[in-house]
Amino acid sequence: MFSLLKVEEGVRHNPYIDSLGYPTVGVGFKLGPQGANLKNYTFCLTDNVINVWLQENIEIVYRSMQQNEKINQALLYSNVVRTDILISMAYQIGVNGLAGFNNMLAAITEQDWNNAANEMRRSIWAKQTPKRAERHAAVIESGQWAPVYDFVINQ
């Protein structure tokens, strides 16, 4: 999971302004409100701190996913690889954003992986982040990391 999010979100030790104008650091950790002055954030994170924050954020996201009935049902039918993709989506667009993928989640509970992937590809999210969406859809479809991602997942 760490490897996936680090590939998709990137890793930055120093605060920066993300593409939506939020001060951000680490692996997509928002620090403050949109438009905040970066001068308010004068620190550098070590790899250890980034990993601790990332682990905590993943746990928070996953617990929230389990509390959503539609998402939790999809998780029951997902292998570890597909679960990690759903976590990555929730990490990026929020649990409520993921919950809005009604047709995809229904297809997952029916184990209709082609339809689930196609629902991902047809989404507004896919128009906003087309490369990430296509990688994620391919993994949902196959249930395997390779050949889309060339790393070994340790978690």
Automatic annotation (TrEMBL):
InterPro entries documented for this protein: Glyco_hydro_24 (IPR002196), Lysozyme-like_dom_sf (IPR023346), Lysozyme_dom_sf (IPR023347), Phage_lysozyme-like (IPR052619), T4-type_lysozyme (IPR001165)
Catalytic reactions on record: Hydrolysis of (1->4)-beta-linkages between N-acetylmuramic acid and N-acetyl-D-glucosamine residues in a peptidoglycan and between N-acetyl-D-glucosamine residues in chitodextrins
UniProt-recorded Gene Ontology molecular function terms: lysozyme activity
Enzyme class: hydrolase
Record-linked Pfam families: Phage_lysozyme (PF00959)
UniProt EC number: 3.2.1.17
GO biological process, one term: cell wall macromolecule catabolic process
Keywords, ordered alphabetically: Antimicrobial, Bacteriolytic enzyme, Glycosidase, Hydrolase
Record family assignment: Belongs to the glycosyl hydrolase 24 family.
The protein's name: Lysozyme
